[in-house]
Design brief:
Elements (H helix, E strand, L loop, with lengths): L3 E5 L5 H11 L4 E5 L3 H7 L14 H8 L4 E4 L2 H7 L2 E4 L19 H13 L4 E5 L7 H10 L7 E5 L9 H6 L4 E5 L3 H14 L8 E5 H32 L3 H9 L20 H14 L3 H28 L8 E5 L14 H11 L3 E5 L5 H11 L4 H7 E4 L2 H5 L4 E4 L5
Parallel strand pairs: 1-2, 1-4, 2-3, 4-5, 5-6, 7-8, 9-10, 9-12, 10-11
Helix pairs in contact: 1-3, 5-6, 9-11, 9-12, 11-12, 12-13, 13-14
The chain binds adenosine-5'-diphosphate.
Adenosine-5'-diphosphate (ADP) binds next to helix 5.
């Protein structure tokens, strides 16, 4: 039975997930640890509006559980030692160097975690991969853990997270399903059951699916790929609508009411953002390529190509509508996060659109109630070829939406409000 959980990584996945587990399982102690001391300090802040992650309802849950059975700390070793189950929720960014650059997931953080667990653990542990990972990562983790030679047994499970940012708390409270993949051995099945018992505290057992490790890993990547594909499909049609006089909102409502298709992820937009869709599809493409499956890789890559096209097209439309002269003109951008109800800006379409407009030397006023000024400039710095000074000359971050819009030539609504 799992009594003590350690979660390595206090980010968008680890933080909310552990808060809900702690909330629903008062008899389990949950320690969330992170190397980032500032992040941990923010989780421990007395001002609950200062938590590092914004999700509707999250502050209430942290308030109810922190100090009771939910703890945030930087003491990774101690949390590993005490735990009988360890969730790995560290980041897996796309590789920016070497083989698989721009596509494969960078597993260095995962590997470091596995090595640390191996070095520190003195009792048997269930190790659970929570981060979205390429297929067969569990095998790599298992290999690192197996070769430590200190006699401790590790059972690796895959338990991918299906929460959507912006609705993380309700997704975690009422998940469509929980997926747990494990080895098909006696020890593997025992570990699976231990984790099933945790979720069974609040999830009906018929909604807890158990599979082998590879199916679980691949299901996560493909779930995101399917959702992203829907967005790219509807966005591809939005361009056709603009040329033919059909209205994309009417089309998506019409097809969304077909129960076989359903209404979700059919809203035309500036393109999807966030840390998962692009990364997971690139991963899928990379895996397909590495098995020599060119057609499979090309098929999924098109989803990304369409998304990049949609972001560029949005900026180009603004420029074209203003007779190709936007230099020196003022623009408002409402919303910087990649979607509503989150402060996460990773891969946000707003960054790309802003960058395109800045290339045309437009002046931009950005308003987003949940995103700090410094975040906006770091995002731009990461993407653009301009100097920080140039970005600061052209971009102003404001805290009042009316100020952003006043006397602007165009208002770009980047984060859906409705
Ligand atoms: P996600 O969206 O997957 O949760 P985040 O980047 O929000 O990703 O969070 C991942 C967290 O994991 C970061 O706060 C980072 O500091 C933390 N992290 C990465 N590697 C380690 C490690 N070896 N030990 C502890 N924390 C780590």
């Amino acid at each position: 039975m799992i009594k003590n959980i350690c979660c390595i990584g206090a980010g968008y996945v680890g933080g909310p997930t552990m808060a809900v587990i702690a909330n629903k399982s008062p008899e389990i102690k949950v320690h969330v640890v992170d190397l980032n001391a500032q992040r941990i300090a923010d989780w421990n802040s007395d001002d609950f509006s200062k938590l590092p992650i914004y999700e509707p309802g999250l502050d209430e849950i942290v308030k109810a559980t922190r100090g009771r059975n939910l703890f945030f700390s930087t003491n990774v070793d101690q949390a590993i030692q005490q735990a009988d189950a360890i969730f790995i929720s560290v980041n897996t960014p796309t590789k920016t160097y070497g083989v698989g650059k721009g596509m494969a997931a960078d597993l260095k953080y995962i590997e470091l975690c596995a090595r640390q667990i191996a070095a520190v653990a003195t009792t048997d542990k269930i190790v659970i991969e929570k981060s979205t990972l390429p297929v067969r990562t569990a095998e790599a983790i298992q290999n690192i853990l197996k070769n430590t030679g200190n006699g401790v047994n590790f059972e690796v499970l895959s338990n991918p997270e299906f929460l959507a940012e912006g609705t993380a708390v309700s997704d975690l409270m009422n998940p469509d399903r929980v997926l747990i993949g494990g080895n098909e051995t006696v020890a593997g099945k025992k570990a699976i059951q231990a984790l099933v018992d945790v979720y069974a505290n609040w999830v009906p057992t018929e909604n807890i699916l158990t599979t082998n490790v590879w199916s679980s890993e691949l299901s996560k990547l493909t779930a995101n790929a399917f959702l992203a594909q829907r967005v790219s499909s509807v966005n591809a049609l939005s361009e056709l609508c603009e040329h033919t006089g059909a209205d994309i909102n009417e089309v998506s409502r019409a097809i969304g009411t077909d129960s076989r298709i359903g209404p979700k992820f059919l809203k035309a937009s500036v393109g999807f953002g966030g840390s998962c869709f692009q990364k997971d599809i690139l991963n899928l493409v990379y895996i397909a390529k590495s098995y020599g499956l060119t057609e499979v890789a090309d098929y999924w890559e098109q989803v990304i190509i369409m998304n990049d096209h949609q972001k560029r097209r949005f900026a180009a439309n603004i420029v074209k509508t203003l007779y190709n002269t936007v230099s020196g003109r003022d623009f408002a951008m409402l919303g910087w996060a990649f979607k509503k109800d989150t402060n996460d800006t990773r891969e946000s379409a707003a960054i790309y659109v802003c960058d395109e407009l800045l290339n045309e030397r437009a002046n931009i006023r950005v308003y987003d109630p949940k995103v700090s000024k410094s975040k906006v400039f770091t995002d731009l710095e990461y993407l653009s070829t301009r100097s920080n000074q140039e970005n600061e000359d052209l971009v102003t971050v404001v805290t009042d939406p009316y100020k952003a819009c006043k006397n602007s030539h165009a208002i770009a609504v980047m984060t859906r409000v409705g």
